[in-house]
Amino acid sequence: MTLLSIENLCVELEGPNGVCRLLDQVNLSLSKGQCLGLVGESGCGKSMTAMAIIGLLPQGMRAHGKILLNGEDLLKADEERLCQLRGRKVAMVFQEPMTALNPVVPIGRQVAEGLRLHLGLTRHEAETRASQTLARVGLPVERFALSLFPHQLSGGQRQRVVIAMALACGPEILVADEPTTALDVTVQAQILDLLADIIDEFGMGLVLITHDLGVVAETTDTMAVMYAGRLVEDGPTVEVFERMAHPYTRGLFAAMPSHSSEGSTTRSPLTTIPGRVPDALSRPAGCPFVTRCGFATDLCSRELPLMKTLGHRHNAACFNIAHVEEGS
Amino acid sequence: MSDGLAEIWRTGLRNRGFVIGGIITVSFVLLAAIALIWTPYPVEEIVVTRRFQGISSAHWLGTDQFGRDLVSLLMAGAVNSVAVAIVAVGLGVGIGVPLGAIAAARQGWLDEILMRANDFAFAFPALLSAVMITALAGPGAINSIIAIGIFNIPVFARLTRGAALVVWKREFIMAARVAGKGPLRISIEHILPNISSVLIVQVTIQFALAILAEAGLSYLGLGTQPPQPSWGKMLNEAQTLMFLAPQLAIFPGVAIALTVLGLNLFGDGLRDVLDPRLRRER
Q1: Residue A87 near chain B (CB below 8 Å)
Q2: Which position among A116, A138, A296, B227 has the lowest Cβ density within 10 Å, counted as fewest Cβ atoms?
Q3: Nearest Cα to A251, choosing from A165, A158, A318, A304?
Q4: Are A203 and A189 within 8 A, CB to CB?
Q5: Complex prediction ipTM
Q6: pTM, 2 dp
Q7: Cα angle at B16 between B10 and B19, to 5 degrees?
Q8: Which of A79, A102, A151 to mutate: most B Cβ within 10 Å?
Q9: Domains in chain B: how many in total?
Q10: A1 and chain B: CB distance < 8 Å anywhere?
Q11: pLDDT tens per residue, range A88-136
Q12: Chain B residues inside the 8 Å CB shell of A54
């Protein structure tokens, strides 16, 4: 059952030098109980997509296309409707648990506030629900009083509070924007497990934004790779990992640091993708990846490759998929 | 919360300005509170036979040209000062803080209009505009309160806007918006608690300025009208008697100076105590 479906989403910023397209023809879909991984390097439009879903694009940006939540187009909804949906139907977990909590408000109240706003609970009911939610994310009230302030908690505990805040009203979609980037590795695994458990338990859809492919492999059901505001490859995580049709996806995988072969003491230098992401204002006419791609041909710099279906729901936008796969 | 308050209290005790200023401020307010129910002598009682008395056990600071007890007058004058300052600063906070918060929340043209109006108000020296307003509206306690309150509004509006803008940029505000909260709710639940320490400190400073302004207006005869006692008016009346009875000018002058000094010390100390960054450095 499709919960969220994004169709041809474009986000444009009108600047002094003309219109600048930050997101271009993004198509994504997410079902109940599923996790969608959104991968790409900084500035590729991952967070922009998240902000578009939640309806909080920065001022001056325009979105068109469709973002359908249970069939309702969020881009056509007015601010009042969006305020009802935010927190109630769509919730978000942020990257920095240090800054995502209000430092002067006790955690219990921060979790309870959403409940009172959206479900109209009384202070007492909201506090009961808040302590239940906090207990669910691993902060039982016996050890973590509702009256604690954020600075009295560790990073991982704070991220749990942020997740509890997002979870409190039982949203249908949870958008997690690099929820583990600011945490250390052991806590990272705990938080990811928690998120995975929660989407199973509540039947939510999770949009997981990350640049960590290990996280994607472990947690997501489907994944989408973004580059310079466009999707370059998407499909079921297993298939994408098996086949990796787009050169950029391959580059990302290659750039993942790994232990060098057993026994060797010399360290191999980290693999990188040469060059840099083209500026949003001066993208090449053809494939945005053309300047950094080892498989580029004349066609690539002239024409924009469109998404091609490769197999069951697996798509990639590249002219030279055959070459890429041969070359591996 | 009690932990936080206890810590503030402990750091406060180590701050000399905070302690001295606090003592002066509290005793000043206490004196005013006592004067509400009791003064050594009734302040409106004129007894010509005991005028210009010096310091004695019956009249600790002597009597004025009408034979009124100076201690009683100063105490009653403190009531006047506190009342004017509370209402005037309250007016400034009550109107200025919401204006600043709205400007920060809405941005755009509304922000622009509010802040330009603010600049306009700021362009006039505060005391001068208070004189202007009372001169136009007529002298009197109420008008002087309004005049002092009006020049407090832009101070609080600008301070609130600036501090709120900083808070608006922080991520937990984004989190609050994602949770579906509107700008009004965010301003009340998230912005104001985060800027309250700045506002509290400004209140103490404006309180001192309001007392000073009230004394100034009363000195010019534009503020509190007789027979209600006021420190500024006492100074004014003592002016012509400077060589005959200098203590009539000195004591109200000392009262004004001490109160303003106390409030300023208290405000400065409070700022240091409430600012966690300064607290840790010490």
Answers
A1: yes
A2: B227
A3: A318
A4: no
A5: 0.78
A6: 0.79
A7: 65
A8: A102
A9: 1
A10: no
A11: 999 999 888 888 898 888 999 999 988 998 888 899 999 999 999 999 8
A12: 178
